[in-house]
Design goal:
By secondary structure, the chain is of the alpha+beta class. Among the domains are: 18-50 and 393-429; 200-363. It has helices at residues 4-9, 18-27, 29-49, 69-72, 81-92, 95-104, 119-129, 160-259, 267-274, 297-310, 319-330, 335-341, 354-364, 393-423; strands at residues 53-62, 131-134, 148-155, 376-380. It has a four-stranded antiparallel β-sheet. Helix 5 crosses helix 8, helix 8 packs antiparallel against helix 10 (297-310) and helix 8 (160-259) packs antiparallel against helix 11. The protein is rod-shaped, with a radius of gyration of 64 Å.
């Protein structure tokens, strides 16, 4: 019973006395300072042993419109400045472009080559963490416009500025060569297309010419055949007419002999001879009837018959025969066909090809100097950094000191509570002090 007041005097309370805690930490200030100093030394050692990492960056902007004017005015290859910047950005982000630059500049990347690694392995280690390409978010347009930012982190002892600027120039030249190659292919394809159209026009012309010649010759052939048929029919007609005339002459001669007409006479003259009178009488004969042929007399009729029998050709008796001969003579040579066959430069007669030839001449005359083509504007080239970005010595040492201080304070508090537990004897901090000890 006499120990009860003593027990109550050392019983713990549920309330935390901050002053008592601060006093306990102050009593163990050497431990706290030792932990803080140890952590600070560890931070200093980390910053000293960790290799410095530097960062260099460059910003690319779209080229001015006038820089791409010659290319865009060619009407063959259209490349707005924003598209040119995107193409260069794609080259900068291309694994193949980076690997080719790595292979083309072994002196710059020699520090990245470790023993036992091949070229691709060394490049893979470099490419994994070295470059960082930043593009504007298409969903959130940048008020300053389009841009491409390329950053490179590199350890001390590496010429990062030369690598970054050299790679940017390499990517721009690579894209410039690609644009030149694309332009050349497009121009060649256009020229081949135009040449194909010209060849098609030439083939159409040849076909039309051959068709026209064939039509002209066929028309002449038909005309000659018709004229020959007409001439044959006309000669047959004249022969029949001559035969009929001979038959008429034979009949008229027999009549004239029968009535004794030897020389040409008329019916009225024969009547006058039959009825002679003393006086002189003048007679006039008016008739609308044709005088029979036998009144010509046998002498005339026989002479005409002999002439007809001796005739071998009746062509002179018809003017149409001479006309047919003239037409046949003119059909012997078709001057239209002769002119068509004697054309020297037939391309001059091709239809609707002047526009194609003009376009082909314009494409052949294209002379765009791709070496001076400016695809992008390098707004800021990589510059030698003033200080490394890693490690941040001040921040690391400050964090280590803060952590050391916290660890030292925690250790001091733990020591304080352990001491209190020892002073309280068998009572635990969480037990009920009013219970008797058994």
């Amino acid at each position: 019973m006499n120990n009860t007041p003593q027990l109550h005097r050392h019983l713990p309370s549920d309330e935390i006395d901050l002053f008592e805690l601060f006093h306990a930490i102050w009593q163990r200030k050497k431990r706290v300072l030792a932990c803080t100093a140890l952590a600070g030394l560890l931070g200093v050692g980390y910053t000293v042993l960790t290799p410095a990492v530097y960062q260099v960056s460059s910003v690319l902007l779209p080229a001015a419109i006038n820089e791409l004017d010659a290319l865009n005015r060619s009407e063959v290859y259209t490349l707005p400045p924003e598209d040119a910047l995107a193409k260069v950005g794609a080259q900068l982000d291309s694994y193949e472009a980076r690997l080719n630059f790595f292979k083309a500049n072994p002196a710059l990347f020699e520090p990245f080559q470790r023993p036992g690694q091949n070229l691709e392995q060394g490049f893979e280690e470099f490419n994994r963490n070295a470059f960082s390409l930043m593009l504007p978010d298409p969903k959130k347009p940048d008020p300053l416009g389009q841009f491409v930012r390329l950053e490179m982190n590199y350890p001390q002892g590496i010429d990062g500025v030369a690598i970054l600027n050299g790679f940017i120039d390499y990517a721009i030249n690579l894209q410039r060569e690609q644009v030149g190659a694309d332009l050349k292919v497009i121009v060649n394809n256009r020229l081949n297309e135009l040449q194909g159209k010209i060849e098609a026009a030439r083939a159409n012309y040849e076909a039309a010419k051959a068709s026209k010649i064939a039509l002209l010759l066929e028309r002449d052939k038909v005309s000659r055949a018709q004229l020959h048929d007409e001439l044959t029919a006309l000669r047959l007609q004249m022969k029949i007419a001559r035969t009929n005339r001979l038959a008429e002459l034979d009949e008229a001669i027999s009549i004239a002999r029968a009535i004794g007409i030897k020389t040409p006479t008329t019916p009225s003259a024969m009547g006058a001879v039959a009825s002679r009178s003393a006086g002189q009488i003048m007679r006039t004969e008016v008739t609308n009837q044709q005088i029979p042929l036998y009144f010509m007399g046998t002498d005339v009729l026989e002479a005409e018959r002999r002439a007809l029998q001796q005739r071998t050709n009746d062509d002179f008796t018809s003017a149409r025969v001479a006309e047919i001969g003239k037409e046949l003579r003119m059909l012997e040579v078709n001057r239209d066909v002769e002119v068509l066959n004697n054309r020297k430069d037939e391309d001059l007669f091709l239809q609707d090809v002047e526009r194609l030839r003009t376009e082909a001449s314009r494409l052949r005359a294209l002379n765009i100097d791709m070496s001076t083509l400016k695809l992008v504007t390098v707004d800021r080239q990589g510059q030698e950094p003033l200080k490394p970005i890693k490690p941040r010595k001040a921040l690391i040492i400050a964090l280590c000191l803060v952590v050391g201080l916290m660890v030292g304070t925690l250790a001091a508090l733990i020591g304080h509570f352990v001491q209190i537990r020892r002073e309280n004897g068998p009572f635990s901090m969480g037990s009920d002090p009013r219970l008797p000890v058994r």
